Structure formats: structure tokens, C-alpha cells
Amino acid sequence: MWGSVRSHAQTEIDAVANARKAQMATTPEAVRADSIADLNRKVADKRRTYSPTPSLAEGIIRAEELVTKQFFRRFTPRHANGDIPVLYAGVKWDDPKPTLDEDNVTTEDTAILASLRSYYVWLYSEKESRDAEPLLRALKQRQIPTNH
Question: Which CA distances in Å does 148 have to 86, 136, 144?
């Protein structure tokens, strides 16, 4: 008899405790905390899709492309040597598979500079296109709209 009374009392206590928990979940503080959490989630979602204004984006790009020591530190290991002690001279830059002649190596500063100069002159000079039609067709299909 006492066992059934005890179990009945325990069920009533559990029911009252569950009702109290449900009541506490709907208190103004809990509702406010849930709404704040929802707002924080929405703000975080918007930040992920945020794109800066054009002037701000331009400033960010300019800051990333400044030629400073800090910019070049990202690409140069600390143990790297910035000098070019030896260089192949007389390389024909237009050749797709240049042959590097072991006998035509220079260590003189003026010859290295002359070879580098000829390379950069070739690099930035106008070159003939090889099979330009596929590229031109792709560019025609992806034209920039006139309203941008």
C-alpha cells in the first residue's frame, strides 16, 4: 500500500516539476534570450553574405596590393637568398622548349642584368596569338553588360 502511495506521489512531483520547467521556459527572460540568440544567428548569416561597398572594396584591394616589405614577406622564406649568382645567357624566349647550354652560363652582374632585361622586354612585348579563336568566342559570350 505504501509503495503505491509513494509511486503516486513521485508521479505527481514529477508532473509538477515538468510543469514548472515548461513555465520557466516561457518566462520573459527565456523568450528574450531565445530572440537574442535568433538575432545573433541572423546577423552572423548576413555577415557571411556581406559584400562591401565598391569604394570600401577598392580600398581593401589597394591595401592588399601595396608593394611593401610586409607584402613581400609572405612570399619570401626567411632563409631565401634574393641574389641571382648564375644565369643562363642567350636564351631565346620565344622558343617553347628552350635548350639550356651549360657552356653559356654567366656569373657577371652586367651579363645577368642584360639577360634579365631581355627577358622582361620579351615578357611585356606584344606576341602573336596561337589559336586565338576559342578564346575570342569565350570572351564574346561573356561580355560585360553596358550598365555596369
Answer: 49, 21, 7
Q: Is the distance from CB of 85 to CB of 107 less than 8 angstroms?
A: yes
Locate the DSSP E strands across 3-98: 87-88
In tens, the pLDDT along 14-30 reads: 777 777 777 666 667 77
Q: What is the pLDDT of residue 99?
A: 77
Residue 145 DSSP symbol: P
CA distance 42 to 34: 12
Q: Which three cell numbers stand for residue 105?
A: 652560363
Residue 68 one-letter amino acid: T
Radius of gyration of the chain (CA): 36
In the block, residue with C-alpha cell 560585360: 144
Q: Are 100 and 111 in contact (CB under 8 A)?
A: no
> pTM for the whole thing?
0.38
Distance CA 100, CA 88 (A): 7
